[in-house]
């Protein structure tokens, strides 16, 4: 049995959370002896559906090993992340197969890793070949939607691919979406230059999410109609946004949250495999990129295009609070409970019966940061101190 004391992220009330056998047994009011403000906040673990790697290791590296996967997963506890979708971007079939196989091995050999990975996110390769929508994905590996290829990758993953990002205009995307959704996979629209009709056809076929809405897009587009408005205005889609302070201006974050509501907006960091590396030039599979001193990762030949983020999810929650005037509770849920609902996996809550994936952290209204004190997964302390 384990007892945690802190302030509920829901309303700031001091609480005591009792954990038994990996689950929350009780959540009760508590009475601090001194100032409750000295207690950490307590919230469910963060869940990010788009993380590409860490400290130079990429999930789409064809030489990825299960040990590297475990290292990357474990590093994320320090940021309050207890669940994530390892994300593989556009690459050859062989490279995707190798990365997926390593992730499967890591999950099958290690129970905590299996709990941390509710599914793999396949971002591409069925995306737009155009500059802008394609982002930093390598053009040579972009290809039309192909259900047979996906089935083979899904077999290699042991049925772990839970989320696919594709462009509605690629190949016979609508049919691919219908089959994917029927098999339990969530389909997200992204890296697209689709017409409004193609966007609607993808949603009619079962797509329920937008991948980093507002990014992976042309630098210049027709004012309306366009693929951003079509996704923003369709209530059947959750919107995922990167709130690292570089990918979207504050006004766009506010607009997405107002259009989608706090229940249907998801925060992701979309951290690159270079997250955690020092500033400088780097060569990655898709070409040359550079980490700028302010923490931006850009395509070297075309610095207006970002190549993923160097921030982690806790930083993105803190930025979203400031940029969009959100409550801690709403912003935190956008990076935890909303993600689970969008992927139709167990929602973890600060409530009896929920799996004890919990984070203790420091944060004040005026703070730029959410500082993680401790991360507990399945009732076990994974990093920090209590
Ligand atoms: Zn992307």
Q: What's the quick description here?
A:
The protein is an alpha/beta fold. It contains eleven helices and 21 strands. Zinc ion (ZN) binds next to loops.
Low-confidence stretches: none
Strand arrangement within the widest β-sheet reads: 5-8-9-10-11-12-13-14
CATH superfamily of the largest domain: Metal-dependent hydrolases
Largest sheet: 8 strands, parallel
Description:
There is one protein chain. This protein has 386 residues and is an alpha/beta fold. It has two domains: 2-41 and 366-384, no CATH class; 45-348, TIM Barrel (Alpha-Beta Barrel), CATH 3.20.20. The chain has eleven helices and 21 strands. An eight-stranded parallel β-sheet has the order 5-8-9-10-11-12-13-14, with helices on both faces. The chain has a seven-stranded mixed β-sheet with strand order 3-2-1-4-19-20-21, with no helix packed on it. Strands 15-16-17-18 form a four-stranded antiparallel β-sheet, with no helix packed on it. Strand 13 (238-242), helix 8 (250-260) and strand 14 (265-268) form a beta-alpha-beta unit. The longest helix has 17 residues, at 93-109. Residues 123, 135, 191, 212, 216 line the site of zinc ion.
